[in-house]
Design goal:
There is one protein chain. The protein is α+β, with helices and mostly antiparallel strands and 266 residues long. Helices cover 46% and strands 23% of the residues. Strands 1-8-3-6-9 form a five-stranded antiparallel beta sheet. It has a four-stranded antiparallel beta sheet with strand order 2-7-4-5. It is globular, with a radius of gyration of 19 Å. It starts with 11 loop residues before the first strand and ends with a helix.
């Protein structure tokens, strides 16, 4: 899933481009994102690789690419075309999103919205960027409220909400365990794991690691802390484990990510 948690607010600072595009090279293409991206695949198939993590997309899939991520694109035979939206989220909500597939086989619900957004952007009428933001907000809200997200009654959702809250309060502790988190919710560990994955589409262990990595990115960008200090403050048991987890998730080392993103700051 392309979202680790639901933020209190989503604020789009800027939309830098909305256009149709295509990629046709025979060799893999390497990219490093300077903005967030939301992409609707029109034709073809491709795989996106972030270190050791890969996901594949096909026609009528929507996927998200996170600002700061590095990845390679491997094309399948055939023409690969898409509509892509490049935009900038505020720091407060950016960490909630990560590169992944948002939804598949969604032509009937979303293609017209992506085409409308492209038309608005290209027409450059007065207030077109405001109109673009409104349309993009609409797309984002539809994705987040999609029926593909499992409905759960409040009696089951509240313990999950408490579990996430407990993680957010205690992620800096390297000894934090899923058993401890389960105990804080009043649920047995096995049942909490099943409920958590059914709703969030990711295991509680992965959610906790994503949360730690998101906070690590914030510290790398906003402080001069050493890599070892960032690892310690985000609950990683060692600098090596932190660096490996960061590279697997984002496709780049913490040091390289910091150097690259600091050069793009005003």
């Amino acid at each position: 899933m392309f979202i680790s948690y639901i933020p209190e607010d989503i604020i789009i600072e800027d939309i830098t481009v909305v256009t149709s595009g295509n990629i046709n090279p025979p060799e893999p293409v390497v990219r490093h994102r300077q903005t967030s991206g939301l992409i609707y695949v029109l034709t073809g198939q491709a795989s996106y690789t972030f270190g050791s993590r890969t996901f594949s997309v096909k026609a009528d899939d929507i996927f998200y690419l996170a600002q700061g991520d590095s990845y390679s694109i491997h094309l399948k035979p055939g023409r690969y075309t898409f509509i892509h939206i490049n935009f900038v989220l505020t720091d407060s909500c950016r960490s909630a999103f990560h590169s992944d597939i948002c939804m598949g086989d969604c032509r009937s619900q979303y293609l017209a919205l992506f085409q409308r957004l492209e038309s608005i952007y290209k027409a450059k009428e007065p207030l077109h960027l405001t109109d673009c933001r409104i349309t993009l907000y609409n797309i984002m809200m539809m994705l987040l409220r999609s029926p593909q997200r499992t409905y759960m009654p409040s009696s089951k959702f509240q313990p999950l909400h408490n579990a996430v809250k407990y993680m957010e309060q205690n992620y800096a502790s390297p000894t934090l365990t899923i058993g401890e988190i389960s105990q804080s919710t009043g649920l047995c560990e096995g049942y909490m794991r099943r409920l958590f994955k059914a709703y969030h589409r990711v295991s509680p262990s992965r959610y906790l690691q994503n949360l730690r990595l998101s906070h690590a990115k914030d510290l790398l960008l906003s402080t001069t802390l050493s890599i070892s200090d960032v690892a310690e403050q985000c609950g990683f048991s060692s600098t090596y484990y932190f660096s490996e987890a960061f590279r697997r998730h984002f496709g780049i080392s913490p040091t390289a990510w910091r150097d690259t993103n600091r050069t793009t700051q005003f």
